Amino acid sequence: MSLTMGSLFDGIGGFPLAAQHIVIQTLWASEIEPFPIKVTMERFPEMVHVGDITKLNGADLPPVDIICGGSPCQNLSLAGNRSGLKGTQSGLFYEMIRVIKEMRDADRNRGQTAQFVRPRWCIWENVPGAFSSGEPPCEDFRIVLESFAGISLGAVSIPRPESGKWKPAGRILLGDTFSLAWRTLDAQYWGVAQRRARVYLIVDLAGPSAAQILFDEKGLFGHSSPGQGEEQTPAATIGTGAEDTGWFDTS
User: Fold this and answer.
1) Which residues of the chain have pLDDT under 70?
2) I need a surface site. Which of 25, 26, 129, 216 has the fewest CB within 10 A?
3) How does DSSP classify residue 62?
4) By the 8 A CB rule, do 249 and 165 touch?
5) Measuring CA to CA, how many Å separate 123 from each of 148, 181, 225?
6) pTM value?
C-alpha cells in the first residue's frame, strides 16, 4: 500500500511532483493563489484543493501519512524585513503546526494509536535565513524544532546550541518514539542551473527514521554534491526537558 500526502502552502506543486516520482499519492493541497492552483489542477487533476490554511480544521481533512509544507519565507529571508516567525507571512508556520495537531487528535479519536496515528511524517522547507532570524538571534529555528517536537511529546524545551549558531545539518533522536533531522541543500547540485539553498526538515512523530530518510543517499531521488552532508559526527548532548537527546551535525 502506497503512502499518502497532504501539501500545505502548495505553490505550483513541487512536493506533489517529487512525491509522484516515488509513488506517494498527494490526496489534497492547500493554496490560495489562483495561478499556482491552475498549474496544479492541470498537473494533478485528482488532487483536491482544500483552500486557505487559516480556515482549515485538521479534523475535517482526509487522513494522510505525510504532511509537507514550505511556509512563507518572506520574514525569515535575509532579503526580507527579518521579523521572523512574528511576521504576518512567516508566522503562518504556526497554522501548519495547528493543522497537524488537529489531524492527529482526530485520528486518535478514530481509534488509531502509536505509529498508526496520522500524519506520522512531516516535511518543512524554508530559506537558510531561518537559522539566524528571531530575537534573540537564532531563536526562530529553535522554535521550529520545539514546535514539531511538541506535536508528539507535548511541552518540551530545546535549547540553542552552545555555539549560538545552527549548523546546516543535524538531528534530534528520542529513542524509538521521535526523530527529527534537517539538511541544507543547494539546487545547483540537483540539476538546476542556479544557486538556491534551502533547508529541508524531516520529522518522524512516532519513530527513528527522520535521519535515515534525509541522509541516506540510497534513499534519495537524485545525488547529493561532494561535502553536502556525507558524514555525521557527534557534536553535543542537549536536554529537552524530557530526556537527553543525541545531537549530530555536519560541518
Assistant:
1) 1, 80, 217-251
2) 216
3) P
4) no
5) 10, 10, 21
6) 0.87
